[in-house]
Design a protein that fits this description.
This protein is an all-alpha fold and 464 residues long. It folds into 2 domains: 14-192 and 291-437, no CATH class; 201-288, no CATH class. It is 56% helix and 2% strand. It is built from 16 helices and 4 strands. The strands form 2 sheets. A two-stranded antiparallel ribbon has the order 1-4. Strands 2-3 form a two-stranded parallel sheet.
């Protein structure tokens, strides 16, 4: 069911927002009160599995002369990069695992296998995006400042090219996010010193250099070197192309004497080395591309489908804690999928739960989802969710339509109703049973607690 009804923020009373804030706080408190070995085991297991997949991929690519080994190695690298980016990097740097006080798995020290520096990303994403979610003019992730994805955003002729911008952002996502994190416009407006911009650019250059050396020079060279050693040990018995590229060039100079002898020696050794190097380089490039496309799809499907609301600065002026929760709830959308889908999407298929509790371990989102739905049903709030294909298509329909002038807001979902809708009066929510587990002033209470760089800033408790 869809409707063009006004934003739920406009029809909830102060008393309802106050009660709603307490219920959302109660869910957070209950989960954080019971975090322990099960959660620690989960993240340690994901880290271990991700590293094992990396090793498997690299070993397979040592034999990348075999098409089967190349395909399997590339698939392993792609999966490892997706896990590292989504379930590990994104969530660890959100502070979701800071409660463990693990010196190696902490938002203050973790860095990820992508072009963005941890410091710039945490400010741009954790603070700006999660504090000002979907507020036009405040949330820089709303179209990433290169696309018009809401009809309330003013049209400009440059938006005619946004389908192209979106395509380029898809295949170059890690680099686009890295540049986006710098916020050049803030420097142009005088809100950010250019010295800070230069420092951030220096950090990106360092990350870019490390990424390029690792993926496009280092690992291909290691694979090629391993092939050369194996070929020498086996006295040239490994199958390889007949001629080397360097040998062919030498023969153009001379096919006799020392040059000819050198060319013959290179033909015995280099063809496989060259081929292995190039195949490993191609595998790394393809794995990075697959990771970029996947991350772009998950993030866009969780933020920009038709179901989500955007807000003017006037709408959220003097926002209460309950209002902040509602804005997070209706400004995000979930993606339905299997348990494996949710792991490789960083559990960002539960984007609604993530925006409500960005510091909560991602493995808990599926457990609290029924409680969020219960609150939505009792307060007549939407719970935005849909299949991946549906979310992806609506996002890209908006990108293409809003490249042109005009456009109207798409119909929004009505209040959530569970499949087994209750017929009697509603009782207290499941979460309300835990309302008094932690006092409001407890340092772990609420989604705003700050562990080493997590800077989400909702209104404080007591400000409903």
């Amino acid at each position: 069911m869809t409707t063009t009804a006004e934003s739920p923020l406009a029809r909830l009373s102060e008393q309802e927002l106050e009660k709603l804030a307490k219920e959302f706080d109660a869910i957070h408190d209950e989960v954080f009160a019971e975090l322990g070995d099960r959660d620690r085991h989960y993240i340690k297991t994901v880290i271990s599995v991700q590293r094992q997949i990396v090793v498997a991929g690299r070993v397979l690519l040592l034999a990348s002369r075999s098409r089967t080994a190349w395909v399997l190695g590339t698939a392993c690298l792609s999966m490892a990069k997706i896990l590292e980016n989504m379930e590990l990097g994104h969530n660890i740097m959100h502070g979701q695992w800071d409660w463990m006080n693990d010196p190696d798995v902490h938002s203050s020290v973790w860095d990820w296998d992508t072009a963005s520096t941890a410091k710039a990303w945490k400010h741009s994403h954790n603070y700006i995006h999660h504090t000002y979610t979907n507020i036009r003019g405040k949330d820089r992730d709303l179209g990433y400042e290169i696309m018009r994805i809401d009809p309330n955003q003013p049209w400009h002729p440059v938006w005619l090219a946004q389908p192209l911008f979106n395509f380029l952002l898809t295949i170059l996502f890690e680099w686009g996010v890295a540049v986006h994190d710098i916020d050049f416009r803030a420097a142009q407006r005088g809100e950010k010193p250019w010295s800070e911009v230069r420092q951030e650019l220096k950090g990106i250059r360092g990350k870019a250099r490390a990424q390029i050396v690792k993926d496009y020079l280092g690992w291909p060279a290691i694979s090629a070197g391993a092939f050369a050693l194996a070929q020498l040990a086996l006295r040239g018995r490994i199958d390889q192309p007949a001629k080397s590229r360097v040998g062919r060039r030498l023969r153009k100079i001379s096919s006799k004497g020392r040059i000819g002898a050198t060319a013959n020696m290179l033909d015995r050794l280099l063809p496989g080395v060259e081929s292995t190097y190039l195949r490993t380089l191609a595998a790394d490039a393809l794995a990075n591309l697959i990771r970029n496309v996947w991350a772009h799809a998950i993030i866009f499907c969780g933020h920009f489908p038709d179901q989500t609301y955007t807000f003017s600065e006037e709408e959220v002026e003097n926002e209460t804690r309950g209002g902040w929760y509602v804005r997070q709830l209706i400004g995000a959308a979930n993606i339905e999928g299997s348990p494996l889908f949710h792991v490789i999407s960083g559990n960002l298929g539960y984007q609604v739960e993530h925006h409500l509790y960005p510091d909560m371990p991602s493995s808990r989102y599926s457990e609290i989802a029924p409680r969020i739905k219960d609150i939505c049903e009792r307060y007549a709030l939407p719970y935005n969710s849909g299949r991946f294909s549906k979310q992806w298509l609506t996002v890209h329909r908006s990108i293409f339509r809003l490249a042109f002038p005009g456009g109207k807001p798409r119909p929004k979902p009505g209040p959530y109703h569970s499949p087994e809708r209750r017929t009697g009066p509603g009782g207290p929510s499941e979460a309300s049973r835990f309302r008094d587990r932690l006092p409001a002033e407890h340092p772990d209470a609420g989604p705003e607690h700050d562990y080493g760089g997590v800077e989400v800033q909702p209104p404080p408790r007591g400000n409903a």
